[in-house]
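Whiteboard transcription, Tuesday session. T.W. wrote the structure tokens on the left side:
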């Protein structure tokens, strides 16, 4: 063998060895990146997420003590301004917390239930059903609705799974900006100067009202004329599939659930859709409570009890809805009364805060009605 050929062979052998060893040369860098992300980028990522009620609500959920919640309520915006968890606690000792976001897609419910199961073992899940009347196309036109869920979950494999399930592969922003949402909010550096956001650096910050949001506006509308509406109308097929999957998940986990529709200015067509949903839910052995069938029992007054023209209750309507739900839960479930338990001291504080702010909100609502000062109508 010539000296030249021998030299070429040695070069080839070195190249093969370098190639084999190079397969794992990225590992130390990856480990360093993950460590850096966990120590610095992760809390910064949490802090620069857009602040507001939803962020505070989720951070508050994560701050609740492990296995301390009796009820977790999941759904869209008819959840957090309708049902005052501090009031329910103060009058029953039931600890209920809302995992709700604006215009929440029904497809997100199973992921939020799984997220709740990481730290809580509630005796009851309550699912608000209004969004099941809407097509998925209408809900994905604005992916901010999806981000309301994914951008408020802690980083985890479940969060990645939720992104895969909720975000299309061809999303214009790309899934990567959902997985690492700091890419979306990296310009929000001003958030780092806000003391309130330093409390959110681990997404673990107790909510003073246990996820409830006060509304003191008034937007009147006539009571819907749906008392005599009969018959059923199918819901969008994608939502029906989502509902059945959710029901199967509950059955497999042997978990109790209540499917609920909050009172609002619904149409006859929507009422027929709720009839259709009720049939599906009942076939799986779960109760369906359409509060639009109980206007008189609730005492709801559409001209006074809504903040935005029949869409969401103000503080006056919320107190009535909470009372009705409270009576339903006491009649149909055996939920514990934790009052007097020192580990629930923060709930006592929330109840006292709710009572104070409720008095103020009711007074504001009454003044606005007397003066005819009604909420601005937002054109969609």
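and on the right, the sequence the group agreed on:
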């Amino acid at each position: 063998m010539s000296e030249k050929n021998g030299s070429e062979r040695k070069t080839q052998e070195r190249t093969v060895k370098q190639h084999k060893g190079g397969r794992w040369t990225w590992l130390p860098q990856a480990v360093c990146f993950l460590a850096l992300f966990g120590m610095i980028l992760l809390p910064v990522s949490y802090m620069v997420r857009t602040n507001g009620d939803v962020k505070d609500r989720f951070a508050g959920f994560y701050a609740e003590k492990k296995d301390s919640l009796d009820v977790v309520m999941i759904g869209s915006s008819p959840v957090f301004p309708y049902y005052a968890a501090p009031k329910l606690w103060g009058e029953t000792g039931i600890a209920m917390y809302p995992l709700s976001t604006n215009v929440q897609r029904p497809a997100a419910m199973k992921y939020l239930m799984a997220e709740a199961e990481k730290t809580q073992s509630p005796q009851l899940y309550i699912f608000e059903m209004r969004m099941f009347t809407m097509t998925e196309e209408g809900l994905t036109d604005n992916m901010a609705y999806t981000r309301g869920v994914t951008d408020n979950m802690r980083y985890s494999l479940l969060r990645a799974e939720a992104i895969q399930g909720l975000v299309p592969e061809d999303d214009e922003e790309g899934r990567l900006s959902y997985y690492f949402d700091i890419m979306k909010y990296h310009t929000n550096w001003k958030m780092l100067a806000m003391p309130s956001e330093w409390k959110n650096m681990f997404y673990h910050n107790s909510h003073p009202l246990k996820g409830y949001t006060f509304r003191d506006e008034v937007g009147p509308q006539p009571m819907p004329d749906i008392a005599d509406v009969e018959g059923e109308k199918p819901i969008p097929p994608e939502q029906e599939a989502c509902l059945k999957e959710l029901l199967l998940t509950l059955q497999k986990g042997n978990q109790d659930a209540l499917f609920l529709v909050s009172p609002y200015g619904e149409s006859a067509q929507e009422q027929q859709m709720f009839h259709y949903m009720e049939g599906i839910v009942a076939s799986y052995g779960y109760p369906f409570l359409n509060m639009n069938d109980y206007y008189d029992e609730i005492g709801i007054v559409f001209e006074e009890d809504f903040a935005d023209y029949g869409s969401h209750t103000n503080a006056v309507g919320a107190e009535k809805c909470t009372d009705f739900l409270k009576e339903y839960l006491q009649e149909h479930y055996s939920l514990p009364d934790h009052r007097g338990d020192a580990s629930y001291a923060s709930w006592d504080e929330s109840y006292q805060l709710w009572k104070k702010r409720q008095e103020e909100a009711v007074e504001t609502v009454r003044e606005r009605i007397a003066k005819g000062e009604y909420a601005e109508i937002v054109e969609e």
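Someone added at the bottom: Strands lie at 71-75, 96-100, 124-128, 257-261, 288-290.
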